[in-house]
Write a structure and sequence with these properties.
Helix content is 67%, strand content 2%. With 209 residues, it is mostly helical. It has a two-stranded antiparallel ribbon. The radius of gyration is 19 Å and the shape is globular.
Length: 209
């Protein structure tokens, strides 16, 4: 069963979420249409720095959701399904990541169950029907926490992964992407009395080995 569980989880998640990309309804008003229009404006104007809607700077949201949709538009054209594709791929990655996390913490069968349960979760499915980056944010937080645990075991390269995951979350949703993982990390360090090992989280920790 070595690695087979990963393929099963990926296949099930892909069938569900890639299928939803091309299913109705189309992009709805308000959030969906605004996000997609901003991404289309970035592509057509060539200005990938400032988000604009109807010619007015739209700075309420972090930019990575727009960049991902604009990149999808550049590859596949400006379509409803192309706007939804980055979110669907992020959810598939989240399901695979959950399976890997559970396998690392327990065993392969647990990893398979965890990945399949998340893949078929109605709540996660609903969050892919609207263009908000919350499912993407969940993936960055999950990766940051797993990387934190790996780094605390002395696998120093995972410190880079942890900080990169949180930085990606910042570009998706702002400071909340740091609050949740950092809060969980501080709580874990306190409850386990592992404060002396916090230096393992520094990206340069491995250079001293």
């Amino acid at each position: 069963m070595e690695r087979r569980y990963q393929l099963i989880v990926l296949l099930v998640a892909a069938l569900i979420y890639l299928g939803c990309v091309i299913s109705p309804p189309g992009l709805m008003d308000d959030v969906d249409a605004v996000q997609a229009q901003i991404a289309a404006n970035m592509l057509t104007s060539g200005d990938w720095i400032t988000a604009r809607l109807n010619g007015v700077a739209y700075l309420e949201k972090s930019p990575l959701i727009y960049w991902s949709m604009a990149a999808s538009f550049a590859l596949f054209g400006i379509h409803d399904w192309a706007a939804r594709l980055p979110l669907a791929l992020s959810v598939i990655f989240l399901c695979w990541l959950t399976a890997r996390f559970a396998r690392w913490a327990f065993d392969e069968l647990t990893g398979l169950y965890a990945g399949l349960i998340l893949s078929t979760c109605i709540g996660l499915w609903l969050f892919t029907r609207i263009q908000i980056p919350d499912a993407m944010l969940t993936a960055t937080i999950a990766l940051a926490l797993w990387a934190f645990l790996r780094a605390m075991e002395g696998e120093h390269r995972w410190a880079y992964v942890m900080w990169a995951a949180m930085a990606t979350g910042l570009l998706l949703k702002g400071l909340i992407a740091m609050v949740f993982p950092v809060g969980a990390i501080l709580l874990w360090l306190t409850l386990t009395s592992n404060w002396p090992h916090w230096r393992l989280l520094a990206p340069t920790a491995g250079l001293a080995i």
